[in-house]
Amino acid sequence: MRKLMLIILLLPIYAAGQIFTYYFQSSTTSTPLSLSGGTVTTSGSYKIHTFTTTGTLTITGSGSVEVLVCAGGGAGGNNGGGGGGAGGYIYNSSFAVTAGSYTIKIGGGGGSLGTSGTNSSFSTIVAEGGGGGAGYTNSGYSCDSTGNGGGGSGGGSAHNGTGLTGNHNGGSGNGNTGGGGGGGAGANGTTAGTYGYGHGGDGLSNSISGTATYYCGGGGGGGYTPYSVVYGNGGLGGGSRGFSTSGTMTNGTANTGGGGGGAAAGGSYIPGYGGSGIVIIRYIP
Q1: In 10 A of CB 165, how many CB atoms?
Q2: Where are the domains of the chain?
Q3: pTM of the entire structure?
């Protein structure tokens, strides 16, 4: 009789436990985060999507990703011109995303005398193009206040003076001869000395690609050609050097957002163009 009563008492407890377990298991459903688009690489546990041209990123599931967005750099100025400002630089270590298709836009570098670079973007993140450097015949352009890198002021007599304003300013020209350096993502461009030039401001280092790399350096200012030291160096992160009578024209490095170098005073020398931007996204699948 005692054995029978014990069995009857245990049965309801066992049945209730089974019902509770059933409902708990049926409520746990989720879709893991998965991305496609761009050039795909891996580094350790990370999957990395790199865009160097405009394209589409498709996201399945939801979660957080790491994002770097760099805009195009500005072009340098002419005739003792200032260096072009670096493109805007925006980094977010934990950006929330949901399922859908996103257009990735890659900004181009300034492609003619003293013109600004164009914007790069992903979702709500927009990096502004760098400002173009001023010169003897052009006043240059500043980038939007939310971007990094204003173009350096040119050293030509028509447009000498203070650097144009971005998050990091360009350096001033020196009056009639050398141009200031373009502002970089990490530092201002330097001011031109007497018969001299300014250096481009350095960009910022980031390891999102799997390798520590500098992005968004300012262009160097053009110098005064009768003197032996005739141009400024570009900033770390793709900024190109300024130009002299004997120097070969180079542009801001593509896919870094670097600014173009200013042209030397004393002749019709061509300034450098800005480097295009880049967008990099990585996550742990």
Answers
A1: 16
A2: 33-285
A3: 0.84
